[in-house]
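Form 7-S
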Amino acid sequence: MAGGAGARGGAAPPAAAAPAAGAAPATGPAAPAGRRAAVAYPPTHWIPASTSNYTVASRPTQYSVEYVVIHVTQETFPDARDIFQNPAKKVSAHYMVASADGYIGQFVREKDVAWHAGNWDYNTRSIGIEHEGWVDRPAYFTDALYAASAALTAAVCDRYGIPKTRAHIIAHSEVPGATHTDPGRYWDWARYLDLVNA
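Output:
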């Protein structure tokens, strides 16, 4: 896969055009005494999905955010990006992580509801993170992909007070009514949760 941002959709827009994609709020609440401060978001790149592929919302006011749903694209990063930007596809995720270098694209703002879980209730209450690759090709689950994704998941969990456990960081296949198998048997949950909680 090509390494530059241009191959994936470009860098984030200027701050005047849109807030920094995925950046932690500048005026968020301070960590209570005795608790560590929130994990900072890793660098992300704004690559907007078609507005036909998600629902505008005001989360967490309108819907609480309680889960992170882990997906595998079954596509390359550029092909999945094209799907998210195609208004006829009716699908999106908040983020996608590239296999080769851990590049993170943000396609839907966290306040909005991405259409990723195949279950409206879970869509409203989760952040969806896609990972470039295929469920039956573990070579796509690189150190860079795990590290970047875990840093992103840790930051999302800190922002919304989501426990960093398997009960709240779930597989797409674990969403009620799911017909998908991702992230599949080669996804290393123990390693991933260790990184999220590091």
